[in-house]
Amino acid sequence: MQEPFRPAYRIATPLRNIAQRFAYMGLVLAAFGLMLLGRADTVLMERLQTHVTDALTPIMDVLSRPVATIANIVDYGRNLANLHDENAELRETNERLLQWQTVARRLELENAHLRSLLNFKPDPNAHYVSARVIADTGGAFAHSLVLNAGTRDGIRKGQAAVTGTGLVGRIAGAGNISARVLLITDLNSRIPVLVESTGTRAIMAGDNSDQPRLIHLPPGSVVNPGDRVVTSGHGGAFPPGLPIGVIALVGDDRITVQPFVGRDQLDYVRVMDFGLEGILQPPREMPPMPVSRGASPNTGGEVASSRP
């Protein structure tokens, strides 16, 4: 170090050491003095605080702007990334919907052609009556319900009982103000059904369990768990396409169906009248046999003629 600066350096070094030693104590004393001054003169401290705040506000504003700008840039980039992902998902959904629209239009056109060829007559509009379940008369040997509506409300034997989810059963008996529903899980229930995915026709037979069985499947038919089961419309008791459930179990000697509607979930049902008679139509009365000439009404045989 040069000679002219050595005396100043020797003087500044002890002063700096002293300032470093007593800086903390000085700050504590200054803070304590400000507290006493604030207690002694509140108005003065408020004015001082106001002036300091006003003086530091432009500085804090300038310092906060880069931070806010960086935060906005980060949010903008995050939004752009989210928009990119949403845009890709919407494009995929749009392409899928366009494919379904093409398929639906082709099926609609094909359906129109087939109806024109077959001189198709659409089914009449279905009528329905909503009723409340007032009793569960089932048990270990029967699965049935009692509704608080009957023939006076338009309910009659053979009508379908459904919910918003699927088929529940059919009306097994109807009184004036009540009706009994035979559930699809009852031992006496037999419903012609169709497996949608394969077109396999079968009979769904109840066995008083929560999962009815499929019987009388065609030889070599293949069904898989999860396949939807709907009514086939055979027999004329139910219209085709009423949802019932899905295949729950496929075994060597047993195929079961899990209904969409559980027995313990039934509070209200809708009794549908599709205008179908089917197998529930009462037999017609046979006309009386005509009596031939010369026949005895009692014996049904011819009367022997007497010779003179």
Q: Could you explain how this protein is built, in words?
A:
It is a single chain. With 308 residues, the protein is α+β, with helices and mostly antiparallel strands. The protein has a domain of 153 residues: Beta Barrel (Thrombin, subunit H). 36% of the residues lie in helices and 22% in strands. The protein has 2 helices and 12 strands. The strands form 2 sheets. It has a 6-stranded antiparallel barrel. Strands 8-7-6-9-10-11 form a 6-stranded antiparallel sheet, with no helix packed on it. Strand 10 and strand 11 form a beta hairpin. Helix 1 crosses helix 2. It is elongated. The C terminus is likely disordered.
What is the topology?
Elements: H1 6-40, H2 42-118, E1 127-136, E2 144-147, E3 160-162, E4 167-174, E5 179-183, E6 190-195, E7 200-205, E8 213-215, E9 228-231, E10 243-250, E11 255-259, E12 268-273
Antiparallel strand pairs: 1-2, 1-12, 2-5, 3-4, 3-12, 4-5, 6-7, 6-9, 7-8, 9-10, 10-11
Helix pairs in contact: 1-2
